[in-house]
Design goal:
The chain has one domain. It is 49% helix and 34% strand. It is built from two helices and two strands, in the order H-E-E-H.
Amino acid sequence: MQKKPLGIVLIVIGIIMMAFTGFNYVTTEKVVDLGPIKIDKERNHPVQWSPIIGIVLFIGGIVVIVTDKKSPA
C-alpha cells in the first residue's frame, strides 16, 4: 500500500499549522427580544494551537514518505 499521499497530506497540514497558529469564529447570541426590540451580541471564540504540533506533523509526514520508499515493493 502506498503511504506517500498520507505523508504529503501530513506535510501540508504541518506547514499550515506552523504558519497559522489559530483562527477565530463568531457566534451571535440573542440578549433581548421584546416585540420589535431585538438586541444581539456577537461573541468571538478563538481557537489556538502550538506551532510545535505543526512541526511534529511535518516531521511525521517526512518519516512516512521515507519509510515508504525503503519498504520492498
